[in-house]
Structure formats: C-alpha cells, structure tokens
Amino acid sequence: MMVSLLIPWLPALTIFMAVVVQEMAMPFAAWSVFRPDLVLICLFYWRLYRPDRCGPILALFAGLLVDVVSGAPLGLNAVSNILLILLIGRFGRLIRSIDFFYLLFVLLFLVCLAEGIQLALAALKWGSAARWTLLTGRPLATMLIAPAVIHLLVTIHQSWLEEEPHARR
C-alpha cells in the first residue's frame, strides 16, 4: 500500500538520489573535472520517456538542490536544468526516435550546453576566474557513465511504472 503511494514520485526520487550520489559520494574537491552530471542524465531520461512526471518544476527543484548542496550560486544549475528540460520537451519526439548510440551524442551535446550556460553565468559573476576545464571533462565523464545510469533507470521504469498495479504483490 505504501509503495503504491511512492510510484508517482519515482522520477523525483531517482533525481533526488542522483543529487545525493553526485554531491555527497563524489565530492567536488576529489572529482572536480571528471565528475559526471548524474542529475542531468536522470532529467534527460525521465523527460524523454515520462514527460508527464518530469517537467520544469522538477528541474527547478533539482537544480536548486544541487546549488544548495554544492555551494554554487543559487540558481546556476536551476537555470540550465530548466532550459534543457524545455529543449528536450520541444524536440522529445525526434530525440526518442534516435538510436541509443546516437542518443549518447545528443546527451553529450546537452551536457556541453548545460556546462556552457553555467560557465557563462559564472563568468558574469567571477569573470575569468571561472573553471573553463569543466567544459571538457564533465561532458566526457557524463557520456561514459550514461549507459549504466540509463540502464538502471530503464530497469526502474519498467519494473515500477509500467507494471500493472494488480500484478505487484
């Protein structure tokens, strides 16, 4: 009974877990350049395959949570997440029709775009002191770990959200 109440919140819970793993298990000091963006992978997957459960509001809260936990300026991740969610929503049907191998390059483009947005906003505040090395390392690390994370999300999606309610005991 309690599990059935959590099922509609499953995308939000997986994104929250991605924030926890990304920000707590992989601290910025140790993984600064080659730190994958797990939150963006989760937002990308859920927006493509369950757009009714993942929208701009969830992206806003996920970005604000990342900003608060990481100590980044408030709204930095939130703005880039919202813009990417809107972009994925606009071209979702086209993106869903792409083969999985090419889907990784779409994800690479989106991560580069997110990092570019964040670095441009950071450069407005700090000038040239912004860390421009993140523009190459983070997208590469995200693309390398994306197949494993997407496989986990597909398994969660198929076993919890696509299953008939009466079949689960």
Number of domains: 1
What is Rg?
16 Å
Total DSSP E strands: 0
Assembly annotation: single chain
Mean pLDDT: 85
The first-to-last residue Cα distance is 10 Å
Amount of helix: over 70%
Q: Could you spell the SSE succession in H and E letters?
A: HHHHHHHHH
Structural class category: mainly alpha
Shape: globular
DSSP summary: helix tally: 9
Uncertain regions: pLDDT < 50 for 5+ in a row?
none
Mind describing the biggest β-sheet?
none
Share in β-strands: under 5%
Describe this structure in words.
The protein is an all-alpha fold. It has one domain. Helix content is 75%, strand content 0%. The longest helix is centred in the last third of the chain and has 28 residues, at 134-161. The termini are close together. The mean pLDDT is 85.
Q: Key terms for this structure?
A:
169 residues, mainly alpha, 9 helices
Task: Provide a concise account of the structure shown.
With 169 residues, the protein is mainly α. The protein has 9 helices and no strands. Helix 4 (38-49) packs parallel to helix 6 (76-90).
Task: Explain the layout of strands and helices.
Blueprint: H1 2-6, H2 10-25, H3 28-31, H4 38-49, H5 56-70, H6 76-90, H7 92-96, H8 100-126, H9 134-161
Helix pairs in contact: 2-4, 2-5, 4-6, 4-9, 5-6, 6-8, 8-9
